[in-house]
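note to self: the first set is below, dont mix up w the second
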Amino acid sequence: HPHHGYYCSTREKMGRLGDYLTSPEVHAVFGSLVAKQIAQMWQLAGEPRPFTVVEMGPGSGALARDILAWAKRRAPEFFAALEYHLVEVSDALTERQRRVVMEAYPSLSKASWLPSLTALPQGGVTGCFLSNEFFDSFPVHRVLVRDSRLYEAYVEWRDDSFREVVGPPSTPQIEEHFRRLGRMPAEGCFAEVNLEALEQMKDIGGALARGFVLTFDYGYPAEELYAPWRKDGTLLCFYRHNPSNDPYSRVGRQDMTSHVDFTSLEAAGRESGLGTVGITSQSRFLAALGIGAGLRAGSEEGGLSLEEYYARRRAVTELTDPAGLGRIKVLIQAKGLERPQLWGLEGEDR
């Protein structure tokens, strides 16, 4: 809904005072390390000018702010080549993002806002498409296997409340999705199918002429996502950091999310010319980029106050916690580049 929908409303959603916390809100060190990786991508692409970063679903704007701040301070040649587009559908979030980005870059001359990916020319982008917890925010089809048949969950209003009923799938694309995977959810299991995420990935591949796609998100390969022990799927709601599996309470006032099918996301990318460079966890990605080494160096050189040192140490723990943000998957795809060796994937089996 343009006004009452969760992402379009003006209530606080992200951060410690909202419903959920994403990595850019933890500490600027996250954006700094992402910027370091993107700067290497620019070098591997031959240092083109301009080098366009397209961030989809930029949330609070903290990631854009921290990437621009790091590039301006630490990599002036990269900064000179940089163009930064933020793709945002919510007017309220756009205004918030402008204010946040201006904290580090008051002129905003490097940043611009787009309402959708269709505003970009087909095959017109040389650079990097970036997203953090973007694909898991799309609406999903919730399905159920019963008596070896695939059904979809629908919502009806009865006796002054929302209720779920099941019926035939609403589109043949759902059954085609499982045919492509060569697997179905197990008998009696609910699961989610995120068709819109796959279309977005195809659009990204179509818009990218040469460069990278860098995706941070919660998810699994298909064999884990649709494992027979996952009886209730992965649909979750968050309200003031408290999880719930009831999407029909607090309508429009709680975050709804489900885990990404990375097998299908990679396949959708291949359809539009994107090759997978590697996939790893956020914990290992940030470690490979030096999140721990930077903390030690700052301490040894005396460049950090005691307060900032402990703030960074807490951030390192939170961003790399394998039971929390550290388990986020990092998928890197490329187009028009031959076997790029990226710092964030060092030590990984590509």
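second set (the one i keep forgetting abt)
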Amino acid sequence: MKNQAIQKLLPILAPPITSYQQIALPLAVAMQNPTAENWLYSNYIQVFCVNRRHYLASGNRDNALHYSFYNPEITLLEPADHICIEGREQLYLFKNPDFVKEAIGAGWYLYTDADMFYIDGSNGFGQAHYPHDLLIYGYDEENVYLHMYGESKLTSHRVSYGSFLKGYYSECCDEDTYRDRAILFRPNGKDCAANLGRIRWHMHDYLDGTETFARENPNIFNPHSLTMNGIDTYEEFVELLDYAMENEEKDLRRTDLYCLYEHKKLMLDRVVYLRGKGLLSASDRLLEELGSVKGLSQTLMLLGLKVNALRDSEKKDTALMSMKEKLKDLKGREEAAWYRYIDENREVLG
């Protein structure tokens, strides 16, 4: 009787945040904890982006905002355990063919980077050298199974172990920059409770435009502290659009657009979830207002993608002007909705 092929695949969940892999991939693991939603909706309220004036003064001339959820450490996942492999030790682990098998066999997912030129299914496969994040979630006799971005969405891929090693040890993957993130994750059984105090803190930081990192780490210098935070990020979006209209290159960074929409979607999902758990109140009127915020943010995202698809410069400028007006409308609607939410939960959020 022939031996059956050896294969081990760990489960992958669709994460609630997909705009950034360094958030999405750990969440694909952490959200397998049955109480992870309590933790999720107590976080990911605050957002930040670059200060455009500082960004341009530093010599950057692109149309990027780097708009993202506030998430200083991908290893601070309450519903997941992790092991960080740091230093030169990690450079040798993947050369041991049993390392991946033993890790996967013990329920650990491996988060690291590789040169996408060698990774089947990636946007750069056989065309461009660039390092990017990936999550190893399985193996068979000759391959590893990766979860990562492919064709602009999170997808799973089977890649030969040899191709993965070429990508991992590629000269493109700078040792000091990209080989400092070999992290093992696995979901735990910790009972995660909703943290209403943290929700209050981060919501007020969001509405005040306060830099949360400085509040949480007053004695630590943050090299990315020259950012705009919370509701103040709208001003940076407007400056970005003005900059695009003044230049020949008018295409926008797709991740910025999608993260804007994904943030508003998660904010609405949070209110619905907390109301369903009886933790915070939300009137039907408030839910309608937040629904309109989500809908308008989706319209903005789609309009931004349309800008990138247009070829006529004047038509691009017209679409960018429309985006500016919708951004102002979105900011007003969102501020009004969150202040209503605070009023409806004054004893907890006031």
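remember for set 2: The chain has a mean pLDDT of 91.
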